[in-house]
Amino acid sequence: MKAAAILFFLVLLPCLPALTQETRTWEELWQEMQADADDEDDEEAQDETYERLAQLARDPMELNHVTREELEQLPFLSALQVMDMLEYLHRYGPMRSLGELPMIVSLDYRQLQLLPFFVYVADESAGGSETQSVRRHSFYPHADLTLTGRVPFQERKGDRSGYLGYRYRHSLRAEYSMGKRLKAGLIGSQDAGEPFFAGENRWGYDNYSYYVQVGRLGVLDRAIVGKYRVSAGMGLVLGGSFRLGKLSSLMSLGRQPTTLRPHSSRSQSDYFRGAAATLRLLGNGPSGGATLTLTAFVSHRPIDATLSADGSATTLVTSGYHRTVSEMARKDNTHLTAAGTRLAFSSQGWRLGFNAVGTHLDRRLQPATSTLYRRHYPSGTDFLNASVDYGYTRARLTISGETALNRDGGLATVNSLGWQPSPSVSIMALWRHYGYRYTGLYSHSFGDNSRAQNEQGFFLGTTWQPLRRLTLHAYADYAYFPWARYLVSQSSRALDFLLQADYRPGSHWRLLARGRMRFRERDNERKTALTDNNDYRLRLSSTYDTRRGLSLRTQFDAVRAFYLQTSRGWMFSEHLTWQPRSWLFSATAALFRTDDYASRLYLYERLMAHEFTMPSYYGHGLHLGLLARKDLGQRLRLAARLGFTRYSDRSTIGSGLQAIDGPQQADLDVQLRWRL
Which of 186-200, 213-227, 602-616 shows the lowest mean pLDDT across its residues? Predict the structure, then answer.
């Protein structure tokens, strides 16, 4: 049946382009880029990046008066590309239209597709669409109300007994903006199993995020009251939940945006609650001149924690789940007070910044240090981190780095060099040293670990375009962990290699091949020595894209993993997107077969606005996803998605309170979006 469906699509394919038109959005283009992203770009980081882009799309930048700091907020641009854009404006004067962007040779096809959603040219020729008109007058008010809900068709064990609320997940998002002058938002979210207007959640949703932002008022560049995030340097002190996987870092040459922004996602980690402001003490020009900015913030917020018998906190919990009595008992039982500052100077390509943040907990943080790998986890009630970040970008060279200390003398440093010897070649080298005594409650930076601690390593990668239609990405990464880690009771090492070829034989076709090898060490069964924990992954994909609303991608993934025993797996998937007029249809079908969890495989699937997930599948089964979206006029949009997974190797899905009796599960997502 699956083969017949594929054959049907291939036969129908030549007939569809004439029925479609160009109506693609930045969300669709961005999600397509994430289909090729590194599996290590975790969901929380992707969600945070998506929300940042959504804010920037609502308030696009006037390109002829843009600043370097503004362009650096776009995560799909490298530092060299930012400088190339500014150099083009400086050398040739203001652009007359966005049609000049292809003249900047460092911008690739995907970036040229995305940029028009985030920048505009004020004197662009008349006669464009309504969207273009809004870009020219971005100070006009915008309002956006989104309601999203999920209905599961199977009952979980906790739905019958154990969860405090019903099994439906839903959220509300209301946002308002008036250019860069004023922005405000309210986001409420509810996970399945959490009470709603009941029990401890008598105010409705389990989690709320809210903010009011003002800007461009004299020396006041930006001020936020409510919930917000701060990113600075390369993330050693203030990471703001923004972290890139290795392949994504190579494509952006390791650049990390520095920014103060509202917290507009459903995530319950790495945000501050209070007030923050950035003052521009020197410089207002779009490029070339010296700038000096000062950012200061204060915060007081509750946080979940697991408590010990003496009332101290053993773990700070950021999952955000409050479905059971024990999870609800952890909700907001600890409070975190923080204050910090950033002073940043830039001139003629040079950058220098100073960052500091102090934190106080109203309970003592006391992890179970009797377990070896937790010996150097953060502990105490007061924490202080400070760093200096630095950089230089000129012509084909970019240098970035940050060095940080905590109050106990722990040291962390990360330094990168990006070089573009020719328009077709770019090279990135990155060295990091994160001492095992260095701890930071908000640190997120490049690495093989999830935290910037207990890691030393060197990364070398290159992007080479030997032919106009062929692009090669390759990297090698070595990491050494001097202290014990989870499931590793002594110092260990890791190697990571990747090679990817991206070939576009014509204007409609794209072929991609990727191989990745990871060699790690892990305790043997008796924990007396280390043994190999390796995996090899392969991806082959072919995409047909008419640029007029039709896209068909065929993909094959395979994995071979080894730890004590060999585990293998493969997945074959088809992805179809068709967008005729005011409709959008998307279908995904994936057949997978793996030996166990060690050989799990990841699947990208198109979702609705403000939704992102990269689930993994293991065992034997089939996954289907269907998405339909309809524009009801110019202001209202309705979308629905049906997801279905059936396993042939089990009679129960999941475990504990999440267990489903039966080999299949299905969910229906519905979203209503209104724009003013």
Answer: 602-616
What's the rounded Cα separation, in Å, for the pair 376 and 434?
A: 12
E strand map for 348-469: 350-365, 380-394, 397-406, 411-422, 425-434, 455-467
pLDDT single digits (tens) 370-419: 899 999 999 999 999 999 999 998 878 889 999 999 998 999 999 999 88
Q: Distance between CA atoms of 106 and 615, rounded to whole angstroms?
A: 33
Q: How far apart are CA 19 and CA 135, in angstroms?
A: 28
- Number of Cβ within a 10 Å radius of residue 450: 11
**β partners of residue 69:** none
Please state the pTM of the whole predicted model: 0.87
The phi and psi torsions of 113 (rounded to 5 degrees) equal -70, -40
Question: Which tokens is 214 given?
Answer: 């003002």
The secondary structure of 616-637, three-state, reads EECCEEEEEEEEEEEEECCCEE
Angle at which helices 43-58 and 26-35 cross, to 10° = 160
In this structure, what DSSP letter does residue 124 have?
P
Three-state DSSP state, 667: strand
3-state secondary structure 556-568: EEEEEEEECEEEE
Q: How far apart are CA 296 and CA 276, in angstroms?
A: 6
Residue-wise pLDDT tens digits, 347-357: 888 999 999 99
Contact criterion met (CB below 8 Å) for 223 and 214:
yes
What secondary structure, in 3-state letters, does 321-350 show? CCCCHHHHHHCCCEEEEEEEEEEEEEECCE
- Between CA 272 and CA 447 the distance in angstroms is 24
